[in-house]
Amino acid sequence: MKKIINRPMLQTLKHSLITTGILIAIAPHTWAVCSYTVTNNWGGGFTGEIKVTNDTAQTTNNWSVSWQEANASVTNAWNATLSGSNPYTANALGWNATLAPGASAIFGFQANGIAGAPKVNGNLCGTATSSTATTSSIKSSTPVISSSSSIKSSAASNSSKNSSSAASSTATENSWLFEESAVGFCSNSGVIDTKHSGYTGTGFIDTENAIGASIIWSITAATAKTYTAQIRFGNGGAAARRATVVVNDSQIKTLDFPTNSNWTQWQTVNVDIPLKAGTNSIKLVSETADGLANIDSIRVTGNGITPAACPTAPTDPTTADCNSITNQPILRVAADGSGQYKTVQAALNTLSNSNTTPTQIRIKPGVYREKLTITKPFVTFCGEQGKTTSTILTYNDGASTLKADGTAIGTSGSASITLKANDVSMENITIENSFGIGSQAVALLAQGQRLQFRNCRLLGNQDTLYTHSGTQYYRNCHIQGTVDFIFGAATAVFDNNTIHSVGGGTALTAPSTEQTVPYGLVFLGGKVTATSSVSKGSVALGRNWRPYGAAAYIRTELGQHIAAVGWVKMSENTLDTARFSEYLTTGAGANPSARAPQSKQLTATQAATYTISNIFGSWVPSYSK
């Protein structure tokens, strides 16, 4: 693009002279510092923006700007009301009229014709004035993606016998414009539409009317730093539309897109985005039931910004999994005798409890009836890709099952798999407790640091998954049960899982989080579902097994079986100390106004802290990438 920056010398003038390319800022006192930017060029037209800055120690309560184009006609403007016909006048809107000292307002416009080099004058308005001599020049920079710029370096001047001053352009950072159907635009929850005029490029993005409607862009940054993104939008609806900006899977900020009751009067909003060096994903996610505002483009300013190829979505969610790892020792287990070992236990027996070598135990499809206690670290249990449902580790102990001495084995003793080691991964495997109903019966007891599970099924009834302690990450898993079937004191993240009730039960979860632990059970996205036998409104999201139990559901879809109150207490515990929260849950079970008063509906700022990096600190689960 070509960027023109002019910073005028401000002084008392005798009259307001408008000539070709002159920009005049109007206010009741000397205050204007103005810049004119050509933001996009295409055959037969261009878009531009004008930034007006209050350069005094006083607040100004209104502003307007007039300018004249030499070889173009302005068709519409945004973030200001447009009037006149060459000269054009842009008047402040209500929400951007007041400028504190040093504050700026930016409005944009679209024009047919050729962009020229303007002269920019700041002036005292309402006072006798005379013209000032002003020089401006245009310096080349990288063009926006959707067009090639035809502006050449040039200069213009205007002089007066009474006074003269000079303002020259300053070097500026490059920017890149990302429009629909161009490189760097990846996906949207809606359509590319053209029914409202004033858009640039081939159209604008009209998302579906729903919470969670989104647009994704892919951007390469040469340097890791914070860049400015400007989003051009239209909102002619009845109310502002709110969205969350997500960069590389981290929620950055919530933006409001104000309405001006006119779908053809486009506006812009700016947001600072932290980008890493290399490829970045930028996602805009609706927080309102009406979806996003109409999005015309996003322009990111900063040297070294270019579009990036969009990631290829796998046709199977298990595509890049443990089976692709070849630089580790591999122990092969097959129940049919075709592997090195017929049981998982036999493979485990070859490893030391002090193992430090990442090792894979690859398990062929089959039913493995084994009660396992895993104490070997740095092990990945890897089922075949796409064979999760046919690779089953199962046992059938319940808490009431008796030991040899005649005493019950208890809840912990009932676990089909007891995992007591750090740095263990499981993928493409079903873990089951087939005891049935009538007693607690744990499928997996997980106790350790940096445990991760992907594309797994955890099947049971009461107390299916015991997140005993440590740090745990579950992604794209199916976890089912009846009562309290996810419980424990671990810090555990459930990323895009299905939490499925197979029978009536008091609650889905029963966290026992320690008071000093900030996060407990955290559900990011995913769905909460139930079989048809589970009554509507009969199951709570959670109850606190210990006084300070913590659970949060972030953007999770809740089925109709979820109770309106949402959260209940367990035994003598009270909800007053529990830490139960939700953010933008959806579906028939989402009922914020009816929730237990001790629970929280998080603000966007609070919800933005529920990220992998905040929850786990230095540990980044490889399954989260």
From TrEMBL:
Protein's name according to its UniProt entry: Pel10A pectate lyase/pectinesterase
InterPro entries found in the cross-reference section: CBD2, CBM2/CBM3_carb-bd_dom_sf, CBM2_carb-bd_dom_sf, CBM2_CS, CBM6, Galactose-bd-like_sf, Pectin_lyas_fold, Pectin_lyase_fold/virulence
Biological processes annotated in GO: carbohydrate metabolic process; cell wall modification
CBM6 domain sequence ranges: 176-301
Keywords carried by this UniProt record: Aspartyl esterase, Glycosidase, Hydrolase, Lyase
Species per Swiss-Prot/TrEMBL record: uncultured organism
Transmembrane segments: none
CBM2 domain ranges (all copies): 27-128
Family to which this protein belongs: Belongs to the pectinesterase family.
